[in-house]
């Protein structure tokens, strides 16, 4: 066992049992999966991405590239989780990844021997031919061999929520800088949100032996947390990673609400996506220790020096029995001191510097450690764990020093990610050997180690000042408080980058198995710029996004080209900082809750009638109403059409857009919106109109009725209702703001039903309250009026028809819609009324040649649709000028025609292309396409509407309807688009 | 005159630990009042003279004698009253030639959400800052909730809020509240 006898921020009184690869282990609350496994003596955690090399734990935080596990089982299984981030819980089950058949004996490790054949770009170069094999053969095979874990493949049983959070000051990170900032802002009364990715506040204070205000750092953090809880407007979000900075002070954060439990409690989300809107933000994200590149730097037992301190101080785990520390600055010596304090043997210290401070020499002497000043680590030995380290001393002599832990102190990279999310490019600072934040997003200030101020004292001063200033900016002035005092001295920043002389693989990106040789190859092949190098080698493109090796890779390229770090630069960072589950971004919006539905007032009634529903935009509409004996939709639809043509039917048309327009200038507005003149429409009449877009193409169509001299009601298509209203707002507010006209959508106010068929007048007369006169003389075709029904309920009646039959649309306030349709069914019973749905409506409008969605597709003009005569020449209207463009007047443009199959038994399909008879099926012969088809019960054969080049002049001609997608090739006859009652006798009665 | 609630199809929800409640408000007579250009002040005076009703400033609502006025946009207001009696015939003589009146009764479905958890539940639904420092009784806003346009009013400091959507969205608003208030919101 490697658990230290005392210390650490773990609860030794409680034991947690868990499993890794089916084996049983124990740990304590406060442990991560990584620390508990290390405490149990485990060193091997996984196999690498490409070469299947054995890997252990490198880090103690989100930068971990090696120890990725599959967590949980069944539907909750999730892949690629860093063991360093997994809080231990009772019953946890984890499995290693990317190994077969087992972690210790992995057959795919042969890839490592074949590695000379797998350089960067190998796949692109090798599997180029034949191109068609890439998707079918190569990619699936490569994906099986490489890659990481697998998702469960089943529906996630947990739910996720999204919430909005507003604050004056957002503090990102709760290390010394973040805590100081939050406290400085919170004590002034500002609304502060403090986000900490860890379960515990304190940041590096939890991992270091430093003291603040005379108490251990972890204890000071606890006391400060208590002080923050006393500030009424401070909200502390633990287990919450701020993953992205967006415009206008918006930040995305992910709270892992229940990730530390086997499963969420009742009604508890698994994760919560916080959308934080902050007036000011303080980025105190700290720094991430960086990888050093040397031979065998990926062997289990090679660990970042700061991570060694984390395991020692926070988790009370000895990550080895005999350690070597590789450093080039004072930070590595802190690890030496902590190892010594915890009675762990330090076999050697390899300091890249040739001069070692006397205090360090004394420490080494106390530890009995051999010091290699100016030495190098050139290799590691061992198998699935570290046995020894190959050191070359300053004189060039090589020797192997036995050790099972190599702590590497290669310097720290400020976590500048969020500061650069809006494009601020990090700037190289030679003195601090780090990329520092460039211009941060507006309202953000970067403090502490994230700004390159590495000492605790600097962090505390930075944070205190920034927190007070942010609160002041947000409107909370107050007295300045002195920052807390810490005992640590100014900190330097080491840099090792790459140690020459490696005889083993030297990794720059551990998660993607990118080596120094891959970067050299990228350079040879011309991918010198870091952005190119990154993409060519995939360096920094794994799930860890190069948190440990990113900048090191830039340094390796800089060494190859001889350029400075400043000249070489760095790649940019984009959200998310750490991976975010898609489920968390979706929140509740999945499955049936993906988006809201709109239901008509007649919905409940239609459901009782057995309606088959279809989504049209947000609306649910009845497609047809099957009778028990009917087995095929066409049977139901045909019955519904025949009922309307012979007797009467009722259809819910409440979804059509309805806009009420009021004011003395309403007629003028309609004249501008529609191609034809509306201002002359008498009160009590309805007119059909077509609207164009500014570019002259048809936008929408519908009817508008004049109910009173200054009160009109317009209908739009269901799909375009919101856009028509928007268009009207534009025309009114921008083009004619002085006109006295007002309009609002009344779609939701009116439940409206079409009653269509030869018997419709009788039904309408029976539905209206007694005394209403709907005789043809009082209420002719295209009449509109206000009546009452249902015993005094305001009722609007329009005599308009989409089916070609005598028809009415009757509307009542929505609360009465259910009662109205039941009344209609009751009144229609003697006439054998049937409800009909969207399909029957479609069949009848195709029989009548009325354009709808397929024809009003945004690419057709009024001329194309045979409505040239509706384009008034006496007034201006939106789209008038551009509709006159020569190309739009070209007689060869496709125009609306009807089609019927020459062989009347043949079926037509929408989408088929029209070709001259005998012409080969090539694009050069394409003359148009079929827009809508239906089986006409009245004609007893299929029919279609189509857009055909110069179609109006070609009635009687035969063409070929070619549909290669569904093997359709039918000879069709071109006919006028109206198949039934072209004179309109039926609708006038 | 049997009328059907916009929420008729919505099943009541009883949470394990109730800390907020939402109930449908209906019927509500609603009238859209859009002042003609330059007539907003005159409209305000007319309403004040006849009904003692002050027109609200931007982002606010007012009430007098059982009548509510909600700011909807520049020169645009909704007047509301509980009950089914139509407002238009009553208001037309008061408003005269100062504004356009359009009856919107039944066009909207309204829920009243009240209770200590109300603010927290709305944080999961609306992108608005409802902190007591910024949003208090008397405030009104038009916003988006779960892809629906929602009008929000704060009624009191309980806090209580009215949430209004287009009537056809009633079921979806109900469902969105059920999800946002899981475990703590009583619906119906």
Brief write-up:
The complex is a heterodimer of chains A (989) and B (188). Helices cover 23% and strands 27% of the residues of chain A.
Number of domains of chain B: 2
Alpha plus pi helix count of chain A:
24
Q: Determine the structural class of chain B based on helices, strands and strand pairing.
A: alpha+beta
pLDDT average of chain A, as an integer?
A: 94
Largest beta sheet of chain B: what is the strand line-up? 8-9-10-7-1-11
The H/E string of chain B reads EEHEEEHEEHEEEHE
The helical percent of chain B reads 10-25%
Unreliable residue runs of chain A? none
In whole angstroms, how far apart are the ends of chain A? 96 Å
CATH hierarchy: architecture of the largest domain in chain A: 3-Layer(bba) Sandwich
Descriptors:
heterodimer, A: 989 residues, alpha+beta, Ubiquitin-like (UB roll), FAD/NAD(P)-binding domain, seven-stranded mixed beta sheet, six-stranded mixed beta sheet, 24 helices, B: 188 residues, Gyrase A, domain 2, Alpha-Beta Plaits, 2 domains, five-stranded antiparallel beta sheet, globular
């Amino acid at each position: 066992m490697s658990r230290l006898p005392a210390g650490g921020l773990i609860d030794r009184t409680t034991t947690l049992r868990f499993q890794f690869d089916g084996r049983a282990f124990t740990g304590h609350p406060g442990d991560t999966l990584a620390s508990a496994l290390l405490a149990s003596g485990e060193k091997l955690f996984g196999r690498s991405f490409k070469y299947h090399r054995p890997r252990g734990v490198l880090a103690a935080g989100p930068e971990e590239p090696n120890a990725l596990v599959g967590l949980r089982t069944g539907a909750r299984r999730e892949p690629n989780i860093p063991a360093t981030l997994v809080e231990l819980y009772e019953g946890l089950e984890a499995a290693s990844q990317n190994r077969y058949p087992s972690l210790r004996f992995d057959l795919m490790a042969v890839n490592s021997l074949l590695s000379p054949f797998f350089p960067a770009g190998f796949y692109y170069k090798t599997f180029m031919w034949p191109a068609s094999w890439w998707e079918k053969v190569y990619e699936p095979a490569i994906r099986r061999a490489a890659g990481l874990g697998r998702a469960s493949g089943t529906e996630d049983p947990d739910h996720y929520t999204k919430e909005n959070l507003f604050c004056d000051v957002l503090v990102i990170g709760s290390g010394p800088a973040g805590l100081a900032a939050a406290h400085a802002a919170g004590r002034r009364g500002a609304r502060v949100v403090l986000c900490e990715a860890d379960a515990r506040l304190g940041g590096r204070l939890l991992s270091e032996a430093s003291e603040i205000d005379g108490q251990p750092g972890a204890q000071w953090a606890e006391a400060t947390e208590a002080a923050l809880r006393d500030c009424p407007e401070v909200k502390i979000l633990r287990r919450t990673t701020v993953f992205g900075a967006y415009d206008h002070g918006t930040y995305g954060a992910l709270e892992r609400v229940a990730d530390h439990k086997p499963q969420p409690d009742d009604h508890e989300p698994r994760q919560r996506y916080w959308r934080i809107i902050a007036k000011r933000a303080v980025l105190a994200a700290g720094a991430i220790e960086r990888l050093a590149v040397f031979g065998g730097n990926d062997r289990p037992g090679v660990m970042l020096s700061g991570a060694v301190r984390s395991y020692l101080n926070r988790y009370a785990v000895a990550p080895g029995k005999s350690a070597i520390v590789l450093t080039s600055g004072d930070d590595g010596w802190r690890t030496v001191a902590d190892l010594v304090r915890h009675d762990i043997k330090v076999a050697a210290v390899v300091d890249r510097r040739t001069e070692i401070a006397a205090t360090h020499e004394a420490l080494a002497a106390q530890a009995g450690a051999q010091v290699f000043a100016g030495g190098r680590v050139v290799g590691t030995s061992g198998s699935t764990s570290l046995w020894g380290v190959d050191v070359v001393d300053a004189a060039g002599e090589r020797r192997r020093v036995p050790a099972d832990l190599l702590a590497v102190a290669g310097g720290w990279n400020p976590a500048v990610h969020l500061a650069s999310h809006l494009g601020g490019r990090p700037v190289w600072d030679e003195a601090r050997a780090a990329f520092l934040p460039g211009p941060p997003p507006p309202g953000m200030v970067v403090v502490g180690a994230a700004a390159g101020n590495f000492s605790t004292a600097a962090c505390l001063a930075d944070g205190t000042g920034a927190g007070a200033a942010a609160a002041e900016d947000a409107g909370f002035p107050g007295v300045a408080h002195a920052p807390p005092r810490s005992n640590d001295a100014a900190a330097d920043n080491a840099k090792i980058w790459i140690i020459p002389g490696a005889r083993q693989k030297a990794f720059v990106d551990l998660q993607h198995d990118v080596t120094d040789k891959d970067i050299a190859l990228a350079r040879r092949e011309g991918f010198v710029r870091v952005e190119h190098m990154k993409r060519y080698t995939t360096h920094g493109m794994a799930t860890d996004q190069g948190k440990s090796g990113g900048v090191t890779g830039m340094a390796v390229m800089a060494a190859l080209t001889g350029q400075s770090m400043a000249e070489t630069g760095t790649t940019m960072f984009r959200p998310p900082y750490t991976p975010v589950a898609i489920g968390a971004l979706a929140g509740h919006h999945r499955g049936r809750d993906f988006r809201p539905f709109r239901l008509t007032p007649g919905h409940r009634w239609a459901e009782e009638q057995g309606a088959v529903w279809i989504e049209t935009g947000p609306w649910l509409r009845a497609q047809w109403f099957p009778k028990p004996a009917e087995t095929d939709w066409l049977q139901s639809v045909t019955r519904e059409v025949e009922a309307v043509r012979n007797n009467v039917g009722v259809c819910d048309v409440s979804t059509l857009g309805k806009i009420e327009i009021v004011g003395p200038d309403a007629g003028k507005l309609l004249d501008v919106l529609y191609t034809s003149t509306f201002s002359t429409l008498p009160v009590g009449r309805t007119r059909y109109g077509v609207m164009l877009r500014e570019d002259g193409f048809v936008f929408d169509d519908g009817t508008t009725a004049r109910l009173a001299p200054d009160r009109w009601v317009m209908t739009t298509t269901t799909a375009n209702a919101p856009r028509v209203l928007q268009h009207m707002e534009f025309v009114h507010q921008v083009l004619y703001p002085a006109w006295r006209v007002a309009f609002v959508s009344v779609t939701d106010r009116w439940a409206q039903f079409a009653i269509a068929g030869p018997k419709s007048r009788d039904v309408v007369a029976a539905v209206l309250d007694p005394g209403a006169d709907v005789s043809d003389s009082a209420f002719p075709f295209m009449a509109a009026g206000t009546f009452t029904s249902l015993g005094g309920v305001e009722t609007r009646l329009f005599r308009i028809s989409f089916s070609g039959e005598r028809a009415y649309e009757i509307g009542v306030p929505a609360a009465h819609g259910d009662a109205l349709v039941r009344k209609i069914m009751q009144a229609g019973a003697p006439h054998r009324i049937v409800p009909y749905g969207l399909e029957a409506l479609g069949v009848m409008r195709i029989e009548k040649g009325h354009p709808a969605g397929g024809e009003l597709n945004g690419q057709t003009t009024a001329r194309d649709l045979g409505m040239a005569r509706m384009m008034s020449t006496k007034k201006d209207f939106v789209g008038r000028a551009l509709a006159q463009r020569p190309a739009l007047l070209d007689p060869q443009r496709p125009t609306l025609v009807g089609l019927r199959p020459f062989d009347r038994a043949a079926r037509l399909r929408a989408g088929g292309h029209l070709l001259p008879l005998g012409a080969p099926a090539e694009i050069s012969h394409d003359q148009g396409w079929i827009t809508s088809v239906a089986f006409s019960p009245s004609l007893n054969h299929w029919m279609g509407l189509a857009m055909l080049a110069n179609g109006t002049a070609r009635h009687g001609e035969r063409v070929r309807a070619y549909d290669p997608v569904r093997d359709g090739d039918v000879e069709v006859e071109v006919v006028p688009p109206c198949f039934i009652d072209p004179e309109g006798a039926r609708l006038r009665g | 005159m049997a009328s059907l609630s916009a929420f008729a199809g919505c099943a009541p929800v009883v949470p394990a630990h109730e800390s907020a409640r939402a109930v449908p408000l209906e019927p509500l007579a609603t009238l859209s009042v859009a002042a003609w250009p330059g007539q907003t002040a005159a409209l305000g005076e007319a309403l004040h003279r006849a009904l003692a009703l002050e027109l609200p400033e931007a982002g606010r609502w007012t009430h007098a004698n059982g009548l509510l006025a909600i700011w909807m946009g520049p020169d645009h207001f909704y007047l509301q009253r509980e009950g089914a009696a139509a407002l238009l015939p009553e208001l037309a003589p008061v408003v005269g030639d100062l504004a356009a009146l359009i009856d919107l009764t039944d066009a909207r479905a309204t829920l009243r959400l009240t209770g200590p958890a109300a603010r927290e539940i709305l944080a999961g639904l609306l992108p608005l800052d409802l902190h007591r420092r910024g949003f208090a009784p008397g405030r009104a806003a038009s916003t988006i909730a779960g892809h629906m346009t929602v009008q929000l009013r704060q009624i009191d400091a309980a806090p209580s809020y009215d949430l209004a959507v287009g009537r056809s969205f009633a079921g979806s608003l109900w469902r969105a509240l059920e999800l946002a208030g899981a475990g703590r919101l009583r619906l119906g």
